[in-house]
Amino acid sequence: MKIVILDGYTLNPGDLSWKGFSELGEIQVYDRTAPEDIVSRIGDAEIVYTNKTPLTRETIEQAPNLRYIGVLATGYNIVDVAAARNKGIPVTNIPTYGTSAVAQYVFALLMEVCHHVGHHSEAVKNGRWSAISDFCFWDYPLIELEGKTLGIIGFGRIGQATAKIAHGFGMNVLAYDEYPSESGQKYGQYVTLDELFAQSDFISLHCPLFPATQGMIRKENIQKMKRGVILINTSRGPLVVEQDLKEALVSGQIAYAAVDVVSSEPIQPDNPLLSAPNILITPHIAWAPKESRQRLMNIAVENLNGFLQGAAPNVVNQ
After folding, report:
1. Which of the residues 236, 242, 293, 295 is marked catalytic?
2. In the chain, what are the domains?
3. Catalytic residue among 26, 178, 265, 291
4. Which of its termini does the chain have fewer beta carbons within 10 Å around, N or C?
């Protein structure tokens, strides 16, 4: 059985092993695949894995031996799942690998926004502390989290894991989700979206990207937020209308934003957030600790092994 991995570099830049896959078939790993090379690299493979390389209807139709598509991520919008289903090809994803890593990263961003640790460290190295007579200095407002309200939009596994950490800081947690759950009620108070906007000091996005959620952080909803709110996005870039976010940062309606995702990745030079004030932008790394990537790799192997035994888990196009 031939297994092709079209874009393995981000999952495994060299610090993990592909052994789990090689034990199941003949494996060919490409670091990256250009659009014009997708069909030829799939060739006569039966198993194909992708992370962000698109598998369109046309591509799927040109892969005569294809029996299985594995997505090396949670989001699977890069695969035409309906076309795959029509050909009897299951598409699997990896839904739970990054829960702890992403929740942790939310607070890495939040701590940086609240204390500007990196900035103040550089200021010390540049001699600014040595040049004054005071025993301390700071040039950004410093924020304490105790008693503040965190609004979490999307209260699944990652949202709830984020809420658990927030409670450790003494924060109040409001949650909005289309499908409230019993487990969620343990960690946050469910409210309407408008109530969350109005009451939250911090807002963290954890919802999937669907037509109903695309652009949900837009001018109309930003005006419903507390003035001076802080926005965190570790979910999907297109949840935010970036020009509207920039304007809210300029006006101070949103005091600060920290985003790990943007509308087009890698970020494009004309992205309005690059020229916005009071924003921290990181290159989509919340998911990427080695432990998290190893977990992703293990689940991907388990998905394929289940398929070979007749019952693939995590199928998204049944």
Report:
1. 236
2. 2-97+290-308 (3.40.50.720), 99-281 (3.40.50.720)
3. 265
4. C
Task: Give 89's contacts (C-beta < 8 A, 6+ positions apart).
Answer: 60, 66, 67, 68, 69
Q: What is the pLDDT of residues 146-156, one digit of tens each?
A: 999 999 999 99
Burial category of 309 from C-beta neighbours within 10 Å (exposed 0-12, middle 13-18, buried 19 and up): exposed
**Listed residue (100, 118, 113) closest to 232, CA to CA:** 113
Indicate the length of the chain as a whole number.
318
Amino acid at site 122: E
Asked if 271 and 263 count as a contact pair (C-beta separation under 8 A), the reply is: yes
**Residue 187 has what pLDDT?**
97
Residue entry with tokens 């299985």: 68
**Nearest C-alpha neighbor of 56 from the set 29, 31, 23, 80:** 80
* 227 given a catalytic annotation: no
Cα of 223 vs its chain's centroid, Å: 25
Joined tokens for residue 49:
């894995």
